[in-house]
Amino acid sequence: MRSVIHTATRFSAAFFSSQSSRKSTSLFSAASIQLRTMAHYVTEPRGRPNSTDHRVYLKTSDGKYLSPFHDIPLYVADEQECGVPPKKFKTNEQILFNMVVEVPRWSNAKMEIATKEPLNPIKQDVKKGKLRYVANIFPHKGYIWNYGALPQTWEDPSHTDKETMCCGDNDPIDVCEIGSKVCVTGQVIQVKVLGILALIDEGETDWKVIAINIEDPDASSLNSIEDVRKINPGHLKATVDWFKKYKVPDGKPENQFAFNGQFKDKEFAIEVIKSTHSHWKALVSRKKMKGDEIVCQNTSLCESPFKCSDAEASTLVEAAAEYGEPLPVPSEGKIVLKCFSTLLQVT
Q: Which of the pair, 85 or 270, is modelled with greater confidence?
């Protein structure tokens, strides 16, 4: 298997063109805690894990820092020269997407792309001054998939979705990667989209893309949401149950879903992704940012007014707290297994 090496800067002039992908393969290898190389991207942790100053920055294999939100291309494609878009495909069958892993499978820390920080590093979410962890929803441990986002997408909070009749949640579109491998925070993997679930989270549309890592042993067998039902029976039901109940331990009501909690197919999912990609294009093309908005700083989008130099990006990362040994997990992270009576009722 050969490794496909892409650099984010190769996509700088072509990011506004309509992009599809050529099926390709990738390799990644996990190195030390402080430096992990994934295909063509490298993570650089800063600060101390289990603290509010912990960040995971991404850079290319040649050491150029980037935004995992804005600089990593949405579509997997062959290398291209500046200004030459990738070849298009006639159907959705061959489209592959890059996914940025935020939360490894089975873990509890709520890690996410920091959309309102320069270069958008991955950090642990904080609420009321405390680090956020998801509870174990019986019978599961932490997140039941590798959880992350598709880069170069944005669920626009000013746009009312015609299907759900709710606005976007102001984040990149979320992905649940259902493969058997446990990934690491900041890892960039190539995925096939299989379907999508429409969560309504506190009145906002929060799409959950269901996808499979192309390196997974089951990838060749999973090509649709129906394949998931056949090959991994119970997985989709567990996904709906998890999203319905994961905020209940925090004293909130169960989440609701559009389409009565039914998964939509791959074609529907890809159209939703294309729409969020269009909204992202508009976001990074604005002339300026207003107040407490998403930070669009990037290092590769030539036509974006928020493009910064490699030197500016390096200076920003170097100013962040130095990496240190992890702190003890705080008390709010020492989660006991949550068992809800609704799950134990005998019918």
A: 270
